[in-house]
Specification:
The protein has helices spanning 2-25, 28-38, 42-45, 92-95, 98-101, 104-107, 116-119, 147-150, 155-167, 208-217, 219-222, 250-262, 288-298, 301-305, 330-333, 336-345, 373-390; strands at residues 55-57, 62-64, 174-175, 178-179. The chain is mostly helical. The chain has 3 domains: 23-130, no CATH class; 134-272, Cytochrome Bc1 Complex, Chain D, domain 2 (Orthogonal Bundle), CATH 1.10.760; 288-390, Cytochrome c-like domain (Cytochrome Bc1 Complex, Chain D, domain 2, Orthogonal Bundle). The strands form 2 sheets. A two-stranded antiparallel sheet has the order 1-2. β1 and β2 form a beta hairpin. α9 packs across α12 (250-262), α10 crosses α12 and α13 (288-298) crosses α17 (373-390). The N and C termini lie far apart (137 Å). Bound molecules: heme C (5 copies). One heme C binds next to α5 and α6. One heme C (HEC) is lined by residues 171-172, 180, 182, 299-301, 303-305, 315, 318-320, 324-325, 327, 330, 339, 342-343, 347, 350-351, 362-365, 367, 379, 383.
Length: 408
Amino acid sequence: MKRVAFVALSAWLVVLFLIAVGLDATQEWTVYQRRFVKSLNRDERRGLPGGIQQIQVKPLGRVDRCTTCHVAIDKPQLALAEQPFTAHPGDYLTWHPPEQFGCTVCHGGQGLATQVRPAHGEITHWEQPLLRGPLIQASCLKCHGNLEEINAHVPLLRQGIQLYDRLGCAGCHTVHGFGQTVSIDLSDMGDKPWQLLDFTFVEGDHTLAQWIDEHFREPRRVTPGYRMTELPPGEEEIYPTFMPNFGLTDDQARALTVYMLSLTAESLPAKYTIPQTPRVQPAGYATAVERGRAVFQKYGCAGCHGEGGLGGRKNWNAQLGEEEPSLVYVKMTYDRDNLKQLIRDGRQPVPRRDPARPRAPSYMPAWKDRLSETELDDLVEYLLSLYESQVPQPAPVSEPAEAAPTEG
Ligand code: HEC
Ligand code: HEC
Ligand code: HEC
Ligand code: HEC
Ligand code: HEC
C-alpha cells in the first residue's frame, strides 16, 4: 500500500515538474529571447547574457526588466529591424546610461513585469502605461527644468506649453502655484489615476492620455454634466462643462496632452535633475498697451474673454448672451478706476439670464493683489485700447480722387 502511494506521489511530482518546465519555456520573454538568439551566428551568441535581465536603479527606486525582451537596445551591432529587437533610437542611452536611469523613468510601464502587456503597463490596474510615440516627451520635464537645452528633442511639449499660455488656461486652472482656482488644479495631472475620470463618453481606449486628448477636442462631449460642488444645494444643477472648446487641431490637442502628462508631483533625487534657471525676461515693450497685452496673456484673461478680448466662450445662463463678455467695448462703460476696481474685486456670481435656472458656472475671479500695481495700470491701458484695435473704424472720409487727365 505504502509503495503504491509512493509511486503515485512520485509520478505526480514528475508531472508537476514537466508542467513547470513547459510553462517556463513558453513564457513570453523566453520566446522572444530564443527568437533573437536564432538570428545570431555563433560568435555573436557568445557572451550574450540569457535569462531575465534587470537594471536596478536604487536612487530612483526602480527595477526595470525591459532588456529581457529588448535584448539589443544598447547593442546596435546586433539589433534587428523589428520590435523588441531594435536598438535605441538617437543618443538617449549615451546621455542617460541605462545603469543609472533604467527605462521606466522615461517610458513608463511596469519595470518588473516580464510579459508584454503588463510590462508596457497596458493593463487595467497599472497607472503608468507606456508613453508611446511622441507622448514620451512628457517625461523630460520632470528632470530637465531648462527646456532650452533639449529644445530640439521636445517640439510637441514646447508647443503644448506655448498653447497653454496663449489660450489662457491659467485664467481657470493652476499649475504649480500659478493661475486661478476657478477650476481643477492641474499640477499633478500626469499622475492622475485614470479610474478617477469618467469614461462614459470617451470613444477610444481607457487611458489618461486618451481622456485628456478627447476632452481637449470636445470638452462638452466628454463632460456633458459638470457638477459645481461649491454651489449651495438646489443650485448645483448640472450644465455641460464650461471649459471652452478651443477648436484645436489634432496636433494642438496632442501637444497640450503631452504637456498635461508631463505635470507630476514626482520628485527625483537632485543628481537626476537640472534645475530651472530663471526665465529671461522678454525684451521690454515700448508702450503701456504692449505691456498690458502681455499681462492679459500672462494671467489667462483670454481663457474666458477670448484672445484679444473678443469674447464668445460659453457661460450657461449668464445674462450677457450666455457667454463670457467681450471686452472690446469696456471703454464705453468704464473709466480707469472702475476697471481697476472690477479686476481687483471680480464679480461672482454673475447676473442670470433666466432667474429660474441655476447660476452660471463661470464668473469673474477676484484678482486682488495677484497683479502688481504697474501690471494693473498697463492692463487697463490695453483694455481701453481694444475698441480702436478690434472694432473696424470708419475709414477717414477723403476727397474723391481727381480723375487723372487723359491724354487726348
Ligand atoms: C515580454 C517582452 C517585453 C518586455 C518585458 C518589454 N517589452 Fe517593450 N516591446 C515588446 C514587443 C513585442 C514590442 C512590439 C509590440 C508592441 O509595440 O507592443 C515592444 C515595443 C516596445 C516599444 C515601442 C512601442 C511603439 O509604440 O513602437 C517601447 C518604447 C517599449 N517596448 C518599451 C518597453 C519598456 C520601457 C519596457 C520595460 C518596462 C518593455 N518595453 C518591456 C516586448 C517587451
Ligand atoms: C531619457 C529618456 C529615455 C530613457 C532612459 C530610455 N528611453 Fe527609450 N526612448 C526615448 C525616446 C525619447 C524615444 C523616442 C525617440 C524617437 O522617436 O526619436 C525612445 C524610443 C524607444 C524605443 C523605440 C520606439 C520606436 O518607436 O522605435 C524603444 C524600444 C525604447 N525606447 C526602449 C527603451 C529601453 C528598453 C530603455 C531602457 C534600457 C529605454 N528605452 C530608456 C527615451 C528614453
Ligand atoms: C530622470 C531624469 C531625466 C529624464 C526623465 C530625462 N533626462 Fe535628459 N538628462 C538628465 C541628466 C541628469 C542629464 C545630464 C545633464 C548634464 O550632464 O549636464 C541629461 C542629459 C540630456 C541631454 C544631453 C544634454 C547635454 O547638454 O549634453 C539631452 C539632449 C537630454 N538629456 C534630453 C532628454 C529628453 C529629450 C528627455 C525626455 C525624453 C530626457 N532627457 C529625460 C536627466 C533626465
Ligand atoms: C473658462 C474656464 C476654463 C478654461 C479657460 C480652461 N479650462 Fe480646463 N477645465 C475647466 C473646467 C470647468 C473643468 C472641469 C470639468 C471638465 O471636465 O471639463 C476643466 C477640466 C480640465 C481638465 C481635466 C482635469 C481633471 O482632472 O478632470 C484638464 C486637463 C484641463 N481642464 C486643461 C485645460 C487646459 C490645458 C486649458 C487651456 C487650453 C484649459 N483647461 C482651459 C475650465 C476651464
Ligand atoms: C474664469 C473666467 C474669467 C477670467 C479668467 C477673467 N474673467 Fe473677466 N469676466 C468674467 C465674467 C463671467 C464676466 C462678466 C461679469 C458680469 O456678467 O457682470 C467678466 C467681466 C469682466 C469685465 C467687465 C466686462 C463688462 O462688460 O462689464 C472686465 C473688464 C474683465 N472681466 C476683465 C478681465 C481681465 C482683465 C481678466 C484677466 C486678469 C479677466 N477678466 C479674467 C470671467 C472671467
